[in-house]
Amino acid sequence: MAATQTLAEQLRAQGVSRRGFLKFCAATASLMALPPSLIPRIAEALEAARRPSVIWLSFQECTGCTESLTRSHAPTLEGLIFEAISLDYHHTLQAASGEAAEAARLQAMRDNAGAYLVVVDGSIPGPEANPGYSTVAGHSNHAILMETVEHAAAVIAVGTCAAFGGLPRAAPNPTGARAVMELVDDKPIVNISGCPPIPMAITGVLAHYLTFGRLPELDAYRRPLAFFGESIHDRCYRRPFYDQGLFAESFDDEGARQGWCLYRLGCKGPTTYNACATQRWNGATSWPIEAGHPCLGCSEPAFWDAGGFYQAVSVPPRVNAEALLGAGAAGAALGAGTALAARRFTRHEQQQREPVTVEALEKRL
Amino acid sequence: MSELSLERGLAALRAEIDAPVAAFFSSCVRCGLCAQSCPFYLETGDPRYTPILKLEPLRRVWEAEFTLWGRIKRWLGLGQEVSDAMLAEWEPLVYDSCSLCGRCSMVCPVGNDLVYMIRKTREGMVQSGHAPEGLVAASVRAIRTGSPMGLQWKTLAVQIQHVERSTGLTVPVDRAGAEYLVMLSSMEIINFPEYLEAITRIFDHAGVRWTLSTQCFEATNAGIQIGSKDIAAELVERVVVAASALGVSRVISPECGHAFTAIRWEGPNLIGRPYPFRVFHIIEVLDELRRDGRLHTEGKEADRLSMHDPCNLARKSGVIGEQRALMDLVAEHFVDLDEHGRFQWCCGAGGGVSSNERAEPLKLAAFKRKKAQIEAVEPERMVTMCATCRTQLEEGLEEFNMDIPVVGLTEMIAEHLVERPAAEPEPGTESGQPA
Fold this sequence. Notes:
The complex is a heterodimer. By secondary structure, chain A is α/β, with parallel strands linked by helices. Chain A has helices at about 5-15, 20-30, 40-50, 65-70, 75-85, 100-110, 140-150, 160-165, 180-185, 200-210, 225-230, 230-235, 240-245, 255-260, 275-280, 320-350, 360, and strands at about 55-60, 85-90, 115-120, 125, 135, 140, 155-160, 175-180, 190. Chain B is an alpha/beta fold. In chain B, α14 (about 195-205) packs across α23 (about 410-415) and α18 packs across α20 (about 320-330). The model of chain B is unreliable at about 430-435 (pLDDT under 50). The chains are: A alpha/beta, B alpha/beta.
């Protein structure tokens, strides 16, 4: 029954006012860096949108992505729009179980061939890996993925495991885990990375898809630029401390208490692209850096293997003032020595130099 | 005394490399902007005339002798040697296609003073015997006779007679204790005697005590053009001796731009001691007289006039506002060329190019830049203040059948002086009402 309702009807039935709905549209437009003139269009498109069929596949994952989406907000607009899609298959959330659950997936694929969206969380043991590492209803993850995406309109890889392989893929990668984009190459793919990803990034991509009928602009890792266009570091509220060279050196020193930059404690903010610094978490309550912990860089590829979480991205050589002065003095002495040698050489040449005489010139005429 | 040779040339190049040269070569980013500033490159389109390429002999010596990488290359036998053949090939690049105008030094984005290095490269060229015949001959004549054109005092004496006859004034000669010693160029004496007449009248009008010297009347410097500090120093020394003998406190350079550079800027370094006098260009002196209210003019030129700034005066010496203030005195319709002053374009004849017969076609090619500038503002006459520039403008405009006469600014000022009674003036009275 829900599949025939438009989103507007759905929202009204849920008790969301028109004003609240428009606020959501405006927030979506600004988040996606769309011009304000498009807000009415978003509202119009969302109001008229039939709930698209979504098949959610969970593979080698921890359910953290689903937890993040479902528990981080008690009913917000993001939650509502998420309910406003027709989630036809989702291990954790669907009521059906066993063969009935798999039948629902096949039914949705048949009914919406070419139009349904596939959301994937979790990585997939690749075709060359032992399929027994992860199966659902007796089928390997790889087989289910390939079967399901065949008639999909697009694939949305939610979470770093689906987007880049994540924890299962960390060295030595015993299950041969692969990212969705390594296995599927003939469908539009959006990666919404993060461990877990920001809920608004998922609803934003869905809203964009419902409004414009296509996926938003992506970066080199196929992440929506609207959410992954800027680094944590560039938008971090502790950035002024970095610029002043004020760093926390341990988790309980004066700098940490003063809220100084966590760079030296291993913060990966400078190399991490995500919207945590602007969106924050748990209904914009806080986020890791605000809680006093460095960014782990969870939305970046191979973040588990990118060095220790508490090692700074890069640090200048820690030399003491004496060594620095010594090196400076040695450099200056070397430079002065070279200059002196060059000058002596030139002076010697100048002394050796024979003046040009008019007689010598005359011989040339 | 040994012959001029490659060895002497290389030794001279080594001796010329100083800290600025090393810094300049190290900081060159090979952007090629110097090419875009050079009239010889722009008007021929020949990439050999890119200013930085003209410095290749000096650059190779610098690399081989003063850089670690160059030494390693030389040790491995990979160094690029400067040979006699190479210097012969570079001779036309260093002399024929460079008027030492210095525009490349102005535009270089990393601040490399290219013209400073061209001047130094010429030192090596002379020592290796690769200087153009025309410049060698001019240098020999300058040393032997006192004038690069072989002119002697008796020629100037004839011109003085003419001037005295036409003005009714006396041209002071060897007058000890005068304030100003006026130096001339042979070109002014032969081609533009009206210059001497003009300053005679202006100085009489303003009550300036000045003199010529029979000991030394020529202050152009072929040594600067050919690039030999020995020749240049000898020529500067003669001026200093003559000025000291007369006890003047100020020396007026010939209008000639390179003479001014030689005597105003390079001179004390060449002879290794400070001057007992100060050096001015006639334009600076005239503007000082104007500011002091000692120049009284009447009437103004009614036609459309434009002006060519000599490179050595404007770009290298910063004399830019003075000639314009003087123009305002006597010209009603003055219009500047689009690029003027510090960024003006060379006439194409300076730096020894005009003394070098072989460079004639290049000299004319480089003039096309000036021609285009002149065509853009369409003046009825051009005004300038350098005998070499003036000759080049006249020849060039004639070559392209452009009927635009060229006049000297000093002469134009002299024509507008207020007539006054022939009586000897008292310095205080002349600011009163002229008769």
